[in-house]
Every structure is written in C-alpha cells, then in structure tokens.
Amino acid sequence: MRKKYKFALLGTPIEHSLSPEIHKIFAEGCGIEKNFEYVKIDTDKTTLKETVEYLKSSGFSGFNCTMPLKEEIMNYVNEKSGNCKLLKVCNTVKINRDKTLSAYTTDGSGMVSGIEYNGVKTAGKNILVFGAGGTTKSVVLSLVESGAENIIVLNRSEKNLNGIKKLFSVFGGLPSAPRITFDLLNLYNIEKYIKDFDIDILINTSQLGMKGFEESPAFDPEYKFLDLLKNDAAIADSVYNPLKTKLLNAAENAGLKAIDGFWMLVYQGAFAFMIWTGKEIPEAYIEKAHGVIKR
Description:
This protein is an alpha/beta fold.
C-alpha cells in the first residue's frame, strides 16, 4: 500500500489561500499526486490546540501555520530548528511518527530563493529592508546566512524596530556576520541609506501595498526615492495581493528589476514540502506553481 501524504494549512482568514494548488503541483512534480492531500482548516488561537490534536490523530504528516498562529504554535511543538529558537516563530510543522511536533521557518529562505531564482544574488550585496514583523525577522536571518554584506532595516514603529534590533544583537560580535543597521522608516533615512550604502536590493516585508492597507508611504506616495537606486538594483516584495503592488509598478517604471511576492510564497511552500516528504521538487514545477497566481 502506497503512503498517503496528508498536510494542512492553519490560520484565519485562509479561504482565498492558493497553498493547496501550489502543493498539488509540487506533488505532481514528485509523482505522488494520487496519494497527496493538502487542506485548509480555518483556525484561530482559541482552536489551535484542538486542531493540532485532530491532525495528529488523523494521519496528517505536517502542516503550515499562517497569521495569526506563527508565534502561538511554538507553545505546542516538541522540537525547534535553530532559526525557530532564535526568531520564536514557525510556519512549518512536521508531525513525526511518534506524534511529536518539529518546528521550522521557511519564510526567509523562501524570499532569498525567490530573489535568486530571478537572477539576483544576495551574497556580498547591500540590502535595504522595510518592516520589522515576523516575516522581516525570518528574511533578515536568511540574508545573514546567505552572506549579505550590509543589511539596513527600516520600520515606522520604533517599538517594533527596537524588538528586532535586540533579536539580532547576537550577531554583533561575530566577525563573519554582515553589518546590520536599524533605523526609522522615513524619506530622509531611505535616501540616506540608499546613497551611503549604494543599495543593491530593496525588500519590502511590511504590509505596505497589501490589499486593505496603505498603497504607499504618505511621505513619498509615488516612490520617487527609487530614482536614487543604481540601474541594476532589484526590488522584491513579500506582498502578493495585489501581485503587482504600487512599489513594483514604480520599480518597473524606473527601469529596475521587480520581483513579486508570490515567488516567496511558492518557495517557502517548496521548502515545507521538502521537509515533510524528503523529496526534491523539479525546477520546472516551481515555475509552474508560480503560474497559479496568474490564472
């Protein structure tokens, strides 16, 4: 009897999530689509424990957590990857044979891999990051691991900025670690750091531009600061609803490379799939999964 692969996405709201379609394509690429199942289960913090017990008792081998559960799920896992221990967040859980739970985070590696798939290297580069939330933490850690030269993190909330600054203070004494700078997100600082560090890549990990949130910062609604970037700079977004954010439209109008947020979603899913199944996804099916957003 062939093994049945059963996985789930937990979070709320998730009715519009494309994760099942993405993982179905991964399963197809690995030849296990006939024995593969990936379902969405609307879950909040009050029902998380009950849902996890259901998954453990119903033959599931793992699950993804999205908002608002990435921190809450850490209360229920038995083993944590090094990155999860540092960041205190998790988006991928493997259910082991003994029903224990192992936690991983694939958001940051998803962003870096999405950028590099589009022909942009992060090693040795100067990178400007907008945001200070859970996604930002994972992305910054993956940029550190990829060998970025300088990382500048800008955020509007000083409280959240201080939180991420404290988190990454552990790298301050490591000679091989990149220089990480933290400051407030405003036009003066954006322009200052673009000029001072000759920025190669700008990454938005904030909710800026997401459907239902602000389209652009009030201090520069047309993203004119992009004109200060060099011609071969790249702009990457974590937002994929809409797929083409105002930031990415402005980047293309300025002649810069624009990388949409769906690449991050596809790659973080690919890493989760590999953790669960141990199977390598053919590159052609990574690109096919990205095509789901354009249907």
